[in-house]
Every structure is written in C-alpha cells, then in structure tokens.
Amino acid sequence: MSSKLSECMQENNEQIEFSASVLDLSRSATGLRWKTKYSKLIFRQSDTVPEELHQTVQESFLTLREHNCFFQDLVRIKGKDFFTPVSRILIGNPGCTYKYLNTRLFTVPWPTEGYDIKYCSPQIHDACKALMRLNDYLHIEAVKALQGQNLLETKEIEATTVIDREQSFAPSFTERGSVSKDQSSVGVPEDERSLKNRTSYNLTLLNYMDPLQMLYLKQEPYFGMGNMAVSWHHDENLVERSTVAVYNYSCEDAVIQESHEQELKGRDPAVWHVGLKVAWDIETPGLAVPLHQGDIYLMLDDLNMTHQHCVLAGLSPRFSSTHRVADSSRGTLEYIHGQCELALQNLQTDSDSMALSLKSLEAAVVKQVEEIHNEVEFEWLRQFWFQGKRYLKCTDWWLKPMAKLEEFWRKMEIMTSLVLSEVRKEQQIEEQRNETISCFLLLLKERQKLRKEWTESILKFLDEIANIYDNEKERSLRFTKSMLGKRYGKNIVVLFTAEICEMLCPGCRSESYVMNLSDFSVQCTNKVETNAEFDSDSAKAVCLSTQSTEETGISREVSQSFTWS
Question: Spans of biased composition, class Polar residues (predicted)?
Fold first, then answer.
C-alpha cells in the first residue's frame, strides 16, 4: 500500500501532508509511520475504475442535484442544534435507516427484487440503480483489499516470528515494530462469511457541497490543514470492524487544474482532501490525501474506530458516495414493526362491547410497552415527519409504512391512558401498583422531556427559516419560545403579538394564524374553515410535539399533575 500510494503521488506531482511539513514517502522513517499508523487506508485512482461505471455514477449525482434531492440536516451536537454545511441524501436497501448526530435518515430505496418501488421519474430510478451498481463494485473491491491486507499481515507476522526465534527474543504482539497498537485484530485468518458481513453495504450516504456558496467554513484546528467541510469524527452506527468505501466526484474546472501547475507547499487548498489522524491524538502527525474526480478510498477493518477522519474542502463543488454497513439491529422497518407488534400484544378487545383493556399490569410488561412507545414516537415518527417532503422528491415508498407506525402509536397512546386509569383503582394490590407506577412515571417523564426538546428544536428550525426572509413582514414571523404552536388540522396555529397580527392582517383583530409548513404561507384563522386541510406532511412533526391533553387520551385531572407538553 505504501509504495502504491507513493507512486500515485509522484505521478500527479502532489503531496501527502503530515502536520506542518510535507511528508516524503521515500524516507524510511516515513514509510514505517505510514505502515504502522495508516496502512488500513486504501486509495484507488480513478483509472482503476471502469469508465462506464464512472459515467453512470457521475450522471446520477447530477440528476439528484437537478431534482433538488440533497438536503442539509438539522443535527444535534453537545445539546445544540446545527444545520450541516454538507447536503445529503440516503439511498439503500428498502426499509433501512441510518442515524448520526441524533438525526435518523431514511433510505430512498434502490431498485430491489421483491419490492414495489415507484420512483417520481425514470431519471431517479436510473440514478438509484447506478448507485446500487457502484455499491456492488465497492463490495468486491473491499473484499479484495481485506484479503490482501490479511495476507500481507500474516506474512509479516510469520517473518517477525522467524527473526524473534533466531534472536531468542519474543516481545508481546502489540510491541512489534511492524504493527501498531491501534491497528488491532491483524493476522487473524477470516472466513468468507466474515469478510462478506463486513463489506456488504446496505446503504450509501451521498454528500454534496459547493464551498464557494458557504459563508464560513471551520478551520482544521490541529495540523493547519485549512478549510473543513466535515470536522474530525468517527462514522456512527456501523457494524463493528466494517469497511467504509467512498467514491469521490469533484467537479474540477480550469481554475482548479491551473493550480496544479504551481509549486505547492503542503496541501493544495483548491483540491479536496480526506484527512486522517489517530483518534484523540494530536502528537502523531495527521494525514491529508488529495481526492480527484473518480478516486476511491477504503477505510478497512477497525480504522474507523482507531482513527478519526475529516473532509478538507477544495474550491470546486464536490459529490461523494459513502458506502456503509449500517448496524441494522435497531434501524430497520422490520425491527420497529416487530417492536410495535410485541407491545400491542398487551392490548385486548372485548368481543361483545369492543372495549379495549390491558392483559397485564405487571411492571415489566408496562415498562416494555412504554419504552417501545417512546421509541416509535421519538426515533421514527418525529424523525420522519420533521424531515417533511424531502423523500417525496424521489419516491412515496415510506408513506404507507409510516402510516402503519402512526396507527401503532395511536394504540399505544390509548394503552398509556389505560394504565393511568387502572392504577387509580383501589382494587389493585398496593405493592404491585406502586411498582407499576414507579417505572411508569419514569418513562412518562422521559416522554415529557423529549416532547419539550422536540418542540424547542422545531421552533428553532422555523426561527432559522424566518431569519432568511427578505422583507419586514416576513421577518416578523420569527418563532420564539413565547409564541405558542397548537394543532389546527394538519397545520400549526401560531399565536403572535397584537402588533404582528395587525401587520399580517390589518383590521382583522385575529390573534392566531395558520402556518402551512409545506410552503410557510400564513392565513388568519378567521379566514380558514374548520375542516381545512393543507398539503403539509412536515406539519405532523409539530402536531406530535404540541399534542393537547385530549389528543393523547389522558384525563384532564391526571394530566394536570404531570404537566404535559
């Protein structure tokens, strides 16, 4: 790997940068450093990839951009919400999701046998199909790379063992010079099944950014590598020791090409790079590898755990397709439907009166049901509807499954009210009653806390949108905590101050307005019929976060003691 990368850099007259100095790969000390610290980063130049695959994949990127399928995500970092500078879309196996930084993304399914997937246009279908082909190609390349890595490490260990025997010296495995402590699990033969499991990508997260459209990019803080599109991080929620494969498409133009003719010191700021460093270590020099149109790199084995990586911005717009083996233990539609069915086993219907009741009030059963209740609401429904109509730009595949989840959620809301009713009855055994109430209250408090957090996040999101309004009237629609959002059909009713109300609708004297969250238009409630319905899927996020006592089915008397949001 070291020699291949060195040749690649020499052919392109480019450098790999370590810390403040440029690394000369011909030096033996540098070669050892690469070998011990970064040997599991595999780089492939664009000319190693079939030209026909290049063409279809790059066309798919442009198609998705033309159809406005890339979106900035609202993510949470250290308790604060931020919009990502990079726009993204997730494509992969039907029913898969991927969660990062408290945000769950839902796959636009690529064409999969056995699934009825209706795309919004033939171009979207072709784009998803091309990315599935790229996925298959990268799977094969990752298996080859792991097999080659394992073979090389096995030979090194055997050679080291022979030398050790000759010298009658046997240091511990992790102390040997050819293998670093952070590159664990090497030299262990792997069967074909294990390799397949760690390289069978079930989704790809596509990224797009035009750095010239960004007002500000954070500077790389440790090694002076320049502007960062994505800060230092580990990829989250992946199968342990699974390989990450990345296809790069930088839209290089004449200005970028001219920069290569200049004599450079360190990394070329016009060229995109991937940065790599040992996790939580700024003493070991970092690595910056230049990325050009069609280049591929693989992060093998445990590299994503032992190291952190970042993306260093160039000057041209850039797409990337990052293929991952996402942990599907809790992130698939099949999983959450199974959880809902498990919870609803505790709900029964009287055959005569059709009245609903609970089969068991045991603390363990109630706890399990309410945990699933919270999971459905906060990990799935709110996450999906908050992202609104973004997925409808590609397909409506998720609408039916999410409608089914909403039905499950409503039944679990009824189950919550049934628990509250039952624990108030005197015939309950006191010890069992107290145990049930104790675990039940903890989950209700957690639900209340999360609903409040979601409400605040949504209002902040709307506030950010209002900040970009151009005229004074639109700027007056800024949402603050003092403005109360309440459900009105499929929209949100916003109570404004008298001054703002007069500005919105002079002489109307209305104190509330309906905001259509699909286009953020505003209408006075005096002018909207009670049964009015807007085409506003994203409003459901607000409806869920501002539910009234009556909507949750919980009695007013009990709800007052819990102060429901």
Answer: 173-186
